[in-house]
Amino acid sequence: MDERPIGVFDSGIGGLTVVKALRDLLPDEKIFYLGDTARVPYGGKSAITVERYSLEIADMLIEENAKIVVVACNTASSLALPKLEKHLPVAVTGVIRPGARAAVAATRNDHIGVIGTRATIKSGAYERELRALNPDIRISVRACPLLVPLIEEAWLDDELTDRVIVRYLEPLVREGIDTLVLGCTHYPLLIDALSRALGERVKLVDSARNCATAVQELLDRQQLRAPLGTSGGLEIALTDAPDNFLRVAREALQLEIGEVQLREVLHGAAKL
Ligand code: DGL
Questions:
Q1: What is the DSSP letter of 187?
Q2: Ligand 1 geometric centre to CA of 142 (Å)
Q3: Could you tell me the distance, in angstroms and rounded to a whole number, from the CA of residue 77 to the centre of ligand 1?
Q4: Which residue in 135, 146, 167, 169 is deepest, having the highest Cβ count within 10 Å?
Q5: pLDDT band at 87 (very low <50, low <70, confident <90, very high)
Q6: 118 shares a domain with 83
């Protein structure tokens, strides 16, 4: 039993989709969420920069007494997980493995699509995880860099967003995928638009929900669950002042968000 908070970080606000899934699944747990809004987006940055940012932000969660660290960002999970696992004094879980596992369980024709930021797709992280689970799986990937700005603009139910989705996904559907991994923590906010575009043909795998299940398993394995009957809660800190996207996410996710704290990045705390 452990009353310390679960530390969750993302490049910005998108990781709140993971927080929503965690709050639903583990209501007794305290969550400390840190969004690196001063340096978002990570999705177009180089691997070395994403690694450095992730280590700095994760160190800040350790300062907040986190009992485990959840990397609620596909880009950081793709590029920084090995370094985080090596560097941090607590267990770390990302979004890639849980999403890959759920996709392999969901596919019927063994052909999976993955969408994400440029950095996530370029890293090949999903392909590696999927192939480790099933070497015969077919994988079609596509970077969708325009989706994050459309989501942050709150164009969740919008004709233009629908057209962008179709443009990105048409080749994957033509290639024959029956399952699509939403490999970016922003994308669950587009679940309705994606379902509209893909219909019944393609199953959507939401990495946020599967990550929450992995966190539950990790806490159980390490006997770190909060004592029964403790009241869980959510604290949010950002590295820069919140913008409009916080309101968008709060409304779309129906998350109760109290006062948002500001934290300065602890530069250079982490050694690569
Ligand atoms: N949260 C990031 C992810 O899941 C997307 C936003 C960014 O590019 O930083 O990949």
A1: G
A2: 15
A3: 10
A4: 169
A5: very high
A6: no
